[in-house]
Design goal:
This protein has about 280 residues and is of the alpha/beta class. It has two domains: about 210 residues, 2-enoyl-CoA Hydratase, Chain A, domain 1, CATH 3.90.226; about 45 residues, Lyase 2-enoyl-coa Hydratase, Chain  A, domain 2. Helix content is about 45%, strand content about 15%. It contains ten helices and ten strands. The strands form two sheets. A six-stranded mixed β-sheet has the order 1-2-3-5-7-10, sandwiched between helices. The longest helix is centred in the middle third of the chain and has 21 residues. The chain is globular, with a radius of gyration of 20 Å.
């Protein structure tokens, strides 16, 4: 299938989703917000891959939400005194939030590779991924404050899981750029690489390693980690006990151990396809 904002390639259990509008600095136009969740759901629900790698093209990873979106696509009407403005804005922001949340709620891990600038909505995007990697020249900026906005599509509830509150407040209030090394030091980036080619090669190796593991166990890890982040320790402990009670497969465990000893790829079942309603 052809998309306006993305190229998609699936190979050896890895789905590579590439933002493909470098001439527009990969700004998030209206089509972006429908294409991304459609692509992710198709990969996940049809068990087309075990890992997703999200990357970009050109000197800028993502310039954030395209300014044209604020004309009619978000507010619905430019008249803030119109009775429908607030309700329409609220509904549309929830739609944008859900688009990025598809990365977090899908059953398979999502790794993101960031080069150059990551502005505004791009930060919302990368914080919804499981793991983040950047080039030496990459940086993030919670840019919304510079245009009189409060970031509202996902940055704050997620970035606080990676960096201290005071640092997040500084970024949010000032809009300053945080470079790659500081992103790693603060815990936002997993690793930093000299250039995009080196970064993508390393990220693909990590994706390959993840893809070699039992898909159901990886899904369990993703679900348990996200649940644990958002719940109390007691609730999280009970949740993982119930998960393993229901999902632990002795045959998969045995295959994992035997294939490891025999130094061969494991033969694991794919996640079941999700039937459309």
């Amino acid at each position: 299938m052809t998309y306006k904002c993305f190229d998609v390639k699936i190979d050896d259990g890895i789905a590579h989703i590439v933002m493909n509008r470098p001439e527009k600095r990969n700004a998030m136009i209206a089509e972006f917000w429908t294409e991304l969740p459609d692509i992710v759901r198709d990969i996940d629900e049809n068990s087309k891959a075990r890992v997703i790698v999200l990357s970009s093209t050109g000197p800028v990873f993502c310039a954030g939400i395209d300014v044209g979106m604020f004309q009619n696509d978000i507010g619905g009407t430019q008249d803030k005194n119109h009775p429908q403005y607030g309700a329409q804005f609220y509904t549309n922001v929830h739609r944008l939030q859900a688009s990025l949340s598809s990365l977090e709620t899908c059953r398979i891990p999502v790794l993101v590779a960031i080069q150059g600038g990551c502005y505004g909505g791009g930060v919302d995007l990368m914080t919804a991924c499981d793991m983040r990697y950047g080039t030496e020249d990459s940086f993030i900026t919670i840019y919304e404050i510079n245009v009189g906005m409060t970031a509202d599509v996902g940055t704050f509830p997620r970035i606080l899981n990676h960096m201290p509150e005071g640092v997040v407040r500084e970024l949010a209030y000032t809009g300053r750029k945080m470079g790659a090394q500081e992103c790693k030091m603060r815990g936002l980036y997993n690793e930093v690489y000299a250039d995009q080619e080196t970064m993508l090669a390393a990220v693909m190796e990590t994706a390959k390693e993840i893809a070699s593991k039992p898909p159901l166990a990886v899904y369990g890890c993703k679900r348990a980690i996200t649940y644990s982040r958002d719940h109390s320790t007691a609730d999280a402990l009970d949740n993982i006990a119930v998960w393993n009670m229901s999902m632990l497969i002795p045959a998969e465990m045995m295959e994992a151990m035997i294939s490891g000893k025999q130094k061969r790829p494991g033969k694991f079942e794919e996640l079941p396809k999700i039937k459309s309603k």
